[in-house]
Design a protein that fits this description.
With 205 residues, the chain is an alpha/beta fold. It is built from 9 helices and 8 strands. Helix 1 links the parallel strand 1 and strand 2.
């Protein structure tokens, strides 16, 4: 019986693949959790971003790894639940190829505007968007993410025409928003410090 007794886990470093670009909510949260888990469990949790392909590059890397419990994926829920419906990858469905272990939090979305958009509040933003169909571009962490879905639902319900610009993560989208390459974002929280600092204008949660 002693020879087949379950080993303590982890008994060696654990690799954690974050399937979006650095600088977003998933990447920041994974690093915070990784540090806490390292301290609590006594083994290093190595955080590695593998962005691209609407999250599928990270998924693919995890699926091809040794199935020994030492490779994890830390993914936004939208990559797990929404992306399989819009990405044509019959060879890889993350909901069946991977096993969900734990949910770690919920995310609110913030409508952040570049200061160049002539709107000080939500009503002014909505009026401007309706008067200028197709002239405003919004950035998201990628196709099928919750900010993308939120943007398209907003277009439908508010009768606006905002153009979707997908990025490899919330961090790159924020960078272009700050630089004025896009006018707004349905931001999962990475831009809050910039909004507090006056570099962006938040008009809705």
């Amino acid at each position: 019986a002693a020879s087949v007794h379950a080993q303590n886990w982890p008994s060696k470093p654990v690799r954690v693949i974050v399937n979006v670009a650095p600088g977003g909510v998933a990447g920041v949260t994974a690093r915070v959790l990784g540090a806490r888990l390292t301290g609590t469990l006594g083994q290093t949790f190595l955080i590695e971003n593998k962005a691209g392909g609407d999250g599928y590059i990270g998924f693919q890397d995890a699926v091809r790894s040794q199935p020994d419990g030492y490779t994890l994926v830390y993914s936004p829920g939208s990559s797990m639940m929404i992306a399989p419906h819009i990405v044509n990858r019959p060879d890889l469905n993350p909901t069946t190829a991977l096993t969900a272990v734990a949910a770690t939090g919920g995310v609110s979305l913030y409508v952040l505007l570049h200061p160049g958009v002539p709107a000080q509040n939500f009503d002014e933003f909505l009026a401007y968007a309706r008067k200028n169909p197709g002239k405003l571009n919004y950035g998201t962490p990628g196709n099928g993410t919750s900010p993308h879905i939120a943007g398209e639902v907003f277009n439908r319900e508010a009768k606006t025409k905002l153009n979707h610009v997908p990025y490899k993560g919330a961090g790159p989208a924020l960078k272009d928003l700050l630089g004025g390459q896009i006018e707004l974002a349905f931001d999962p929280g990475v831009g809050l410090a910039s909004a507090r600092g006056g570099k962006l204008r938040m008009v809705a949660v």
